[in-house]
Amino acid sequence: xxxxxxxxxxxxxxxxxxxxxxxxxxxxxxxxxxxxxxxxxxxxxxxxxxxxxxxxxxxxxxxxxxxxxxxxxxxxxxxxxxxxxxxxxxxxxxxxxxxxxxxxxxxxxxxxxxxxxxxxxxxxxxxxxxxxxxxxxxxxxxxxxxxxxxxxxxxxxxxxxxxxxxxxxxxxxxxxxxxxxxxxxxxxxxxxxxxxxxxxxxxxxxxxxxxxxxxxxxxxxxxxxxxxxxxxxxxxxxxxxxxxxxxxxxxxxxxxxxxxxxxxxxxxxxxxxxxx
Length: 276
Description:
Helices cover 37% and strands 16% of the residues. By secondary structure, the chain is α/β, with parallel strands linked by helices.
């Protein structure tokens, strides 16, 4: 089987993905901390820091592909996001290029486009509208993946992940949710499809309330098996416990948009950005 490196392997998404992917690949798992106690026979652990290029070169040696889940996973100050998500991603892309790694899966995020109103349905051709420094780092990562595909021949899939869980946890997630099995399917397409150059796709299951046109993923053969609507009663009951958020409820990025908002709300809602 191909050898695939997975960064951020101690995180929640990686923990859900590991049993779904190790049947198809030998996994080299990496994070900054110690190895978990449940490694399978075809999983091995390498402790590495994304900000340390000297630790990434041996990590990528001999690998066929990379699933990059590592980095800062929520909004933070600029220095933290910059080092972990921008410099860190460039570091591991450069290590991948030097090692001859052919495939890269980049965990982008819906927060690269979070300031689009919930009334807009968007595809991958609209301009990015990040809702914080974290979203900026994901938009940057998509651009960096495009560069490494065009200039150095890597095959890169950037997945704008919505929310990965067994079921959607509230009203917003009925539009952006993705079951772990569907994410694993999308990752396998990115690692194996012969025509990938640099593809941007949305990490979402079959969601009737979706805000995103996921035509690119569908054209590559993605067929989600799970539907958010099957969990609608649960999600809405959970939403009732939270209550409304006057600004966040207007935008696709939710509370990321509301956090520290001090802009012109009407202008932000009605702005029509040019297509990329």
